[in-house]
Amino acid sequence: MDQSFPGTLQRWLTAPRVGALPAPAAMPAPQLSFEFFPPKTEALEAQLWACVRRLAPLRPRFVSVTYGAGGSTQARTHATVSRILRETTLTPAAHLTCVDASRAEVDRVAREYWDAGVRHIVALRGDQPPGVERYEPHPDGYAYAADLVEGLRRIAPFEISVAAYPEAHPTALSADHDLDNLKRKIDAGATRAITQYFFDTDVYLRFLDRCGAAGITVPIVPGIFPVNSIVQVKKFSAMCGASVPGWMDHLFDGLENDPETRRMVSAVVAAEQVRLLQANGVDEFHFYTLNRPDLVYAIAHILGARPASAEASAPASANGVVEERAAAGAASTPP
Ligand SMILES: Cc1cc2nc3c(=O)[nH]c(=O)nc-3n(C[C@H](O)[C@H](O)[C@H](O)COP(=O)(O)OP(=O)(O)OC[C@H]3O[C@@H](n4cnc5c(N)ncnc54)[C@H](O)[C@@H]3O)c2cc1C
After folding, report:
1. GO cellular-component terms in the record (predicted)?
2. If you measure from the C-alpha of residue 290 to the centroid of ligand 1, how many angstroms do you get, rounded to a whole number?
3. CA–CA distance from 265 to each of 35, 48, 277 (Å)?
4. CATH number at residue 233
């Protein structure tokens, strides 16, 4: 045989071997959490609640509600979190940011959350409103997330999550500075970090190693972003410093006008990512849902998450939330 042109089988047999992924049934179901954004319009409100109903039966550990850039959604975030508390058995986590607010204002919002029964805050510096280039702390405000965590600790014994950046925050002086900053947030009292999304699993695993070496022991929960549109993801990523590997471009190439195939490809990409993470011991996942449940539901299913009851698993069940509450013995008020 001509050794310079090995035959197909020989090529396969000499190619690098990929480590076996665990059999799904052999893995315990992971802990899940879901991120929603507060809706602006009635149509988006309906979309959010359909999403909540679809995902609630998976019994997430918590569901978080974002705070718009520049603190622009304060009232909507509050309303959404309150409704989740009132009408579901889910545990809400309210995002809270430092941008454009005095300490007194931020403290007031935090106290209102505590009084309303909210026990978990995702504490962030926050993004600037669109059009504002550079971050300037409010003269009487919390300058950075670590300061906010300290402030929240003084107000009430909240559970506090913070943001982490496997590829470093885009304005960080260096990756080491950014890791020091994460450590400061944990030392100030945060008990969990949730990562910016990433697509190369190695990037996250190397970051975990660096967190471990820096003495961080709290969970660094991977943020998983199932891609609906590569164009949109590239735009986001340019702003938030997450890289979009070339292989993603290649995978979505030619699918611009084919949403159905795009969704199938997205599901495969995210499923591969979570299975790889699971194979590396990760058993907690945070999903950026963009208030769209289907891809997240499918990926959670692949991870071994199952609905609390058979009826509750039906897509678009109008009664999902109420069924959940009834199952938990709560008085039922239709949403
Ligand atoms: C899970 C998650 C959820 C998010 N949710 C929201 C949301 O709801 N609303 C929103 O507006 N944005 C949100 N963001 C985006 C986030 O607000 C931005 O990335 C923001 O630019 C940084 O927030 P942070 O809390 O990470 O900031 P910080 O931890 O304060 O860090 C911000 C930057 O400042 C640097 N830094 C920190 N302390 C100092 C210091 N003392 N001196 C100089 N530099 C310093 C850090 O290294 C880093 O580069 C979220 C991000 C993630 C990962």
Report:
1. cytosol
2. 19
3. 22, 24, 19
4. 3.20.20.220
